[in-house]
Amino acid sequence: MRLNTEDLTLQRNYLQKYQFLVSEYEQIKKKVHPKFKKVKDFYLYHHTCAQSFLKYYSRFKQSGESVDLMPQKRGPKYRTRRPLPFIEEKVKKVRELGNNRYEIVDILKPTLKTYTPSPSGVYNIIKRLGLNRLNPPMKKNRRVIIKEKAGDMAHIDCHHLSQSIIKNENNKLYLVCVIDDYSRIAWAELITDITSLTVMFATLKCFNYISSQYQIKFSEVLTDNGPEFGKKGSQQKDQHPFERMLKEMNIKHRYTRPYRPQTNGKVERLWRTIEDDMLRDTYYNSVEELKQELVNYLVYYNDYRPHQSLGGRPPKSQISSTN
């Protein structure tokens, strides 16, 4: 690119200034400068950034070319921050199995280690590749490949019911639910508090029912970080009822990301379904009536109710198809 007269003048003036600064700087380093004893005084006097000056000075001393005292044009930094192609390829393959950005990071971390992109970095990659939205094949892969069989993982959560659900009563009531990730088989128990001991016994009842009726035994569970389930970083897990139960049953405990209920989205969606189908705008005459209706509904949900994510088939059919 040809420079005009004005550009040449600016360049010449810039070079003269930096050549003068280099001469001044070297005199200070040799302790022969008549005015400045310290380099910091030199920077202050000339209103010069030490970092920028030393970058140009070092470049000039290495090459000996005065042109290296000139600022060098470069593109925006963000254009050079893309991950290496092999990392993008690994992210692409894992994404095509239906994993979200957080799951991709967890899957890649053991092999990529320090090269593993952050969740936001993963999102940038899949967005650039046009994979930020799950297509039907990816959704199918997520259900069939990531969770290959019933019992691979249970989602567990507690749900607070409306205090007007029982006629003429105002007591606190909760549901504890266990839902199988693969088949969507679910069971819930009605409880009056969410202390760790109560939640532990309710969860155990759910495990026992699902095991006896559908022959599903879980190897992992996913919960939030609520105190009823035990804290992720606790050093006293053996003293927590829920954690102790999992240890005795040889079940691994996984946790959702804090403040991200969508990580446990399957059970969150079940709560909405139960509210829509049997709780909203309805009341029951007694706790016993509510318990019986809950049992009836869950049998219907598991054995007969069409499930959109299972192609319109009920959860029980998913168990039959794998036997």
Provide an overview of this structure.
This protein has 323 residues and is of the alpha/beta class. It has 3 domains: 5-70; 82-146; 154-322, 2-Layer Sandwich (Nucleotidyltransferase, domain 5). It contains 12 helices and 5 strands. It has helices at 5-29, 39-46, 50-63, 85-95, 101-112, 119-128, 136-146, 196-214, 241-248, 265-279, 287-303, 315-322, and strands at residues 154-160, 174-180, 186-191, 220-223, 252-255. The longest helix has 25 residues, at 5-29. The protein is elongated and about 95 Å long.
Query: What is the H-and-E element order?
Result: HHHHHHHEEEHEHEHHH
Give the percentage of residues in beta strands: 5-15%
**Biggest β-sheet: strands ordered side by side in the sheet:** 3-2-1-4-5
Q: Helix fraction?
A: 40-55%
Rounded average pLDDT:
84
Biggest sheet features: 5 strands, mixed
Q: How many β-strand runs?
A: 5
Structural class: alpha/beta
Number of domains: 3
Topology:
Elements: H1 5-29, H2 39-46, H3 50-63, H4 85-95, H5 101-112, H6 119-128, H7 136-146, E1 154-160, E2 174-180, E3 186-191, H8 196-214, E4 220-223, H9 241-248, E5 252-255, H10 265-279, H11 287-303, H12 315-322
Output the keywords.
single chain, 323 residues, 5-stranded mixed β-sheet, alpha/beta, Nucleotidyltransferase, domain 5
Task: Please summarize what this structure is.
With 323 residues, the chain is an alpha/beta fold. It has twelve helices and five strands. 49% of the residues lie in helices and 9% in strands.
